[in-house]
Amino acid sequence: MERIGVEAEREFLFTEEVDENCGVFGLWSARSVAEEIYYGIFKLQHRGQRYCGISTWNNGLCLVTHPGFVRHAFSPDELRSLKGCLGIGHVSLKERQPMVFYSHLGPYALAFSGNIANSEELRKQLFRDGHAFVTQTDTEILGRFLSQGKTILEGLKQIYKVVRGSFSLVVLTREGIYAARDVHGFKPLVLGRSGKRTAVASESRPFDFLGLKIVRDVKPGEIVLLDNGGFKSMLEIKGGQPAFCAFEWGYIASVDSIIDGIPVIRARQNFGMKLAQRDTTEKLKADIVSPVPFSGIGCALGYHHYSGIPYQESFLIDRFASRSYTPLLQEEREKEAKIKLSVIKDNVRGKKIVLCDDSIVRGTQIRNKVMELKRAGAKAVHVRIACPPLIAPCRYSISTRTYDELVALKYSLEGICRLIGADSLKYNTLDDFVDAIGLPATKLCLSCWTGKYL
Ligand code: SF4
User: Fold this and answer.
1) Same-domain check for residues 190 and 313
2) 133-183 tens-digit pLDDT
3) Among 397, 403, 446, which is best to mutate for testing ligand 1, by the most ligand atoms less than 8 A from CB?
């Protein structure tokens, strides 16, 4: 029996063109998987907070999707209704997933993380071929191309053939869960295992919670099938130069994850150490080093370890506020960032502070933070940024920026420093940034900082 669960808020199906970032999770087990998938996507919540969904296979597809946070969205009854020993889950900023398809291949549910750069062209092609769409989502485009194959594997090959951009996807079928990563491997996808449970996830973070161990990352261009407690590498499509998204280590991924073999915390601490090395040479004097939480924490720790300057919190995180980039309008973002952090006045009064953050897009949020510290009595605020200046939008995954928004394109370093009201400003150089991640530049996507696309 096939059962389709909650699909009440139809207005969410037709969205405006918005930012994209999300996380996927899949699990095959000898016992019921719904609860573990729920925890799996809960641990990926930082990758997307607008929608969440779970699909399981139990002699047919079960599906429940919701707007909002994983923790608030699913009821115990819904989780009980999601029966079966294999399933997939998704969190998103953009659209409801997984999406279910019925085709000559049988029913399947598809969820993906990434961005299809040529989606409009592909949609027109499908229109010309007589297809009609019920949503304006990239997921539906992927599903329609998948169903063009004689088998799921052939359908996935078709996706590799036509899609430009980034995707890490999972497809739930009666024979198991297919996991596939685009030929450049822009978005992470990692395999985990424990006993008879096998899993795939956008990041390793859920594995720790669920008692799974990392087995390996899905290779760029690889399609893996999870079934009967094992992994089968079905196909490796060659021809793409690896281009792992360096912004995963800079900002997107959680610090307790390991992405393509590199612990995120190690990279972030290295960013801070590189910045501290330069400041030590130039004899910068400061009383404390502080992060803009959360994504500046690793960088501030690394700075502290190298420089010996005491690490102290300048901001208190409001645990009930959400991550600041998630709201889609700039106005919403600024309000959210303000609600999220309040200054711990006693820690900053009379202090010279090194303030670490991950990156600067428009400069408004870091300026607000510098101003708040100064209003609280900080003597000086030296801003140190883990990533080099952002000079280009992302075409492959999180389309959060346009050229117009990027402050680094409008002002010199000194100009940005004046604009944000800092006493000094330094970014990591691209060489130091790459060195800190620990992978060769030839394996990374660095387009945000070079403006050169593949
Ligand atoms: S352009 Fe930037 S955000 Fe996009 S994939 Fe490359 S490094 Fe990541």
Assistant:
1) no
2) 999 999 999 999 999 999 999 999 999 999 999 999 999 999 999 999 999
3) 397
* In a shared domain, residues 226 and 285: no
How many structural domains comprise the chain?
Answer: 2
- Give the binding-site residues of ligand 1, using a 6 Å CB cut-off: 186, 245-247, 394, 396-398, 445, 447-448
Nearest alpha carbon, ligand 1 atom 6: 445
What's the whole-number average pLDDT of the chain? Answer: 91
Q: What is the CATH number of the domain that holds 347?
A: 3.40.50.2020
Q: Among 245, 260, 434, which residue has the most ligand 1 atoms within 8 Å of its CB, making it the best to mutate?
A: 245
With respect to residue 302, please indicate whether it lies within any of the assigned structural domains: yes
* CA 444 to ligand 1 center in whole angstroms: 9
Q: Which atom of ligand 1 is nearest to the CA of 186?
A: 5
Report how far ligand 1's centroid is from the alpha carbon of 303 (Å): 25
pLDDT for 20 beyond 70: no
| Known active-site residue 85 | no
Q: Which domain holds residue 310?
A: 263-438
Interstrand relation of 380-385 and 424-427 (parallel, antiparallel or unpaired): parallel
User: Are 155 and 35 part of one and the same domain?
Assistant: yes
